[in-house]
Design brief:
Blueprint lengths: L18 E7 L2 E7 L1 H8 L3 H4 L1 E6 L1 H30 L7 H12 L4 H8 L1
Antiparallel strand pairs: 1-2, 1-3
Helix pairs in contact: 4-5
């Protein structure tokens, strides 16, 4: 079993990545919808002290990114579980789920390879 087949490729969405900044100075709009990195790059690390700004949160985009990540994560987890049962030939064993749950509890904090070893 190749454990890299079960890695989630979608980036875990961080809430801070979905805030945008609108920058103002002397009543004029300088920029809109800048990411934090763009605002810092363009206006400096302390742009919050030098300029007026407001923020908006792109909730729909954030929720979509969470859904994409969770869907892929669930798919990879289920694929790993089913492939593990096939690998050890226990797919018809009535206690396979109990065995997996015990293996998961003991090994998942160390990675999937450890879960596989606990299943032995």
């Amino acid at each position: 079993m190749n454990m890299t087949d079960y890695e989630v490729s979608a980036k875990f969405p961080m809430k801070n990545d979905y805030f945008t900044f609108n920058i103002y100075k002397e009543g004029k709009v300088l920029d809109v919808d800048l990411s934090r990195e763009e605002a810092v790059s363009k206006y400096g690390q302390d742009f919050r002290k030098k300029y007026l700004f407001d923020t908006s949160f792109k909730e729909a985009e954030y929720n979509l990114a969470k859904q994409v990540f969770q869907t892929e994560s669930n798919y990879k987890h289920n694929k790993f579980r089913e492939d593990l049962f096939k690998y050890y030939g226990v797919e018809n064993n009535p206690k396979k789920e109990l065995l997996f749950n015990i293996s998961w509890e003991h090994g998942h904090s160390e990675g999937l390879y450890s879960v596989k070893n606990w299943l032995i």
